[in-house]
Amino acid sequence: ISPLSKLLLETAIDDRKELAAKALAAQELSVRLTTDPLDHFYEATALPNMAIDAGDFGKAKEYARALLKEAPKYTKDWNFGNAIFNANIALGRASLHDGDVNQAAKYLLAAGKTPWSCQLVSFGPKFGLADQLLKHGRRKVVIEYLDEVSRFWGTDQLAEWKKQLVAGKEPDFGSFYLEE
């Protein structure tokens, strides 16, 4: 879990959005000040989900779409998979916020189809959107997402969660819940 995520969890709910907005503003400044295109790509990868945490769903969609547009320039870069994954998760979270469960499910599956990245392989994908879709009755979509991410993150934990889902139970995604 990132230091920012940990801080947000430990902060009173009323203060979380304010803290997230400050973090987003700092990241936006960093992106604006970055002159190297590749560094810009790295810095921009965090923006979509940071905007959602700050409650700015319009910015989140804008940043995610820009990231998806920029990413094809860097298909051989280590960050490519992170960018595709993060952008699709943010678009899914925004769609869910807008009440479009079907679109959110499509974005979750698109995130699952992402190419691997060092971070996704090592630390695993996040499951907050999957958990929310499960609460909206999208069990089959969540199982399909688990199958997709197992291409790059084949752990015993995934197998256990899938077993629970197939049995009609809701897994506890624990520390893998938070999107970053």
Notes on the structure:
With 180 residues, the chain is an all-alpha fold. 69% of the residues lie in helices and 0% in strands. The chain is built from eleven helices and no strands. Helix 2 packs antiparallel against helix 3 (37-44). The longest helix is centred in the N-terminal third of the chain and has 21 residues, at 13-33.
Concise synopsis of the structure shown:
The chain is an all-alpha fold and 180 residues long. It has helices at residues 3-10, 13-33, 37-44, 47-53, 57-70, 80-97, 101-112, 118-123, 128-135, 139-149, 156-166.
Task: Present the secondary structure layout.
Layout: H1 3-10, H2 13-33, H3 37-44, H4 47-53, H5 57-70, H6 80-97, H7 101-112, H8 118-123, H9 128-135, H10 139-149, H11 156-166
Helix pairs in contact: 2-3, 2-4, 4-5, 5-6, 6-7, 7-10, 9-10, 10-11
